[in-house]
Automatic annotation (TrEMBL), chains A, B:
PANTHER family: GLUTATHIONE S-TRANSFERASE YFCF (PTHR42673:SF21), MALEYLACETOACETATE ISOMERASE (PTHR42673). Residues 91-219 form the GST C-terminal domain. Keywords: Isomerase. This is Maleylacetoacetate isomerase. It comes from Pseudoxanthomonas suwonensis (strain 11-1). One of its GO terms (molecular function) is maleylacetoacetate isomerase activity. One of its GO terms (biological process) is glutathione metabolic process. Residues 3-86 form the GST N-terminal domain.
Length: 220, 220
């Protein structure tokens, strides 16, 4: 497949971070188009970006003429279009397991702690900062408790979430752990998760995707 | 693939409802194992069920010895294991579009309105019933606004979300619309969505999956 790749991204968005890892694991070059989620009232709400993604959320990946939305759908597209190295296992049962791990985070943890949700809690429901932070820690904590059990109790778990090569579930887990640390959670309570996180951090593809390494991130 | 199918389900869970539609579209027979999300303090929290799914959420699909979790992962598994009729299009771009539509609901609308989230708003944050209902309507409303634009502005939309046969995005959209009506939202504001909903309702597979038709649903 030919066509230039452009990622509409924000350095601290964990959904964009997932896609950055996937692109790096595939060794794909892409242009970054920063969308600042706070400046200008949120650049994701500007007309030009809303036309690209009516959900007014990052990431969006443009591949030639194709406009791709939703981080998990984008990762599957990347995996289908550039099959090596594979982000999903070859068997249907393994694929179901990896997708379920990814969705346990992407559906049941991350959306609850998204910027727009925290803004609604603050602005519409008058929830103060400490209670908002407790909210975030509650959903991350209970979500990671479940993910830890899913990983610890399954022979499919290897050096990474599934087997001994990084894949789609790792692309989703690692950004969530970045958020967990940001909100003061200690990964020591989830030993399998902490071990996988360390294995990922040692890989150049994961290092290249971290928020602080992005062109729109804070300068050190 | 051989093996008995058992669906752990709750009549009003929209995630379970998605899988019921998928199974019905494939013409697959399955046993229903009801998990009452309110009785007994929530049967999904009982030890036997938590061992099956540490997330303590329905649905779970058992296929022989395989235990499958997360509704979107289950639908993909069903589609890979019993390919006809297909729930996903044949091209990578089409698959990405269908998955993004499904995830726009399954990641960005439904998890915010889940029972456990509404319970947290009530019990931990003292949010009263009218404000909880406004919360639900806000996330469903803004989510469907975006989905309507994604459908109306794309030549891929046909009689259903993608083309002229029902697929994975329809399996996810229809249960969300059931919820929208339950919370008093009028679909007339989303004409493409309302048209697709009516096309789905006319099909026996969708009729068989509605909450009120389930063995654990309320008797008429």
């Amino acid at each position: 497949m030919s066509g230039q790749l452009t990622l509409y991204t924000y350095w601290r968005s964990s959904a964009a971070y997932r896609v950055r890892i996937g692109l790096a694991l595939k060794g794909l070059e892409y242009a970054s188009e920063p969308v600042h989620l706070v400046q200008d009232g949120g650049q994701q709400h500007a007309a030009a970006f809303a036309a690209l993604n009516p959900q007014e959320l990052v990431p969006v990946l443009r591949h030639g003429d194709q406009v791709l939305r939703q981080s998990l759908a984008i990762l599957e597209y990347i995996d289908e279009t550039w099959p090596k190295p594979a982000l999903l296992p070859a068997d249907a049962g393994g694929r179901a397991r990896v997708r379920a791990l990814a969705q346990a985070i992407a559906c049941d943890v991350h959306p609850l702690n998204n910027l727009r949700v925290l803004q609604y809690l603050e602005r519409e429901l008058d929830v103060a900062a400490p209670a908002r932070e407790a909210w975030v820690r509650h959903w991350i904590g209970s979500g990671l408790d479940a993910v830890e059990k899913l990983l610890a109790g399954d022979p499919g778990t290897g050096a990474f979430c599934h087997g001994d090569a990084p894949g789609l579930a790792d692309c989703v887990l690692v950004p969530q752990l970045y958020n967990a640390r940001r909100f003061g959670l200690d990964l020591a309570g989830w030993p399998v998760i902490a071990r996988i996180d360390a294995a990922c951090a040692a890989l150049p593809a994961f290092a290249a995707a971290v928020p602080e390494a992005q062109p729109d991130g804070p300068r050190s």
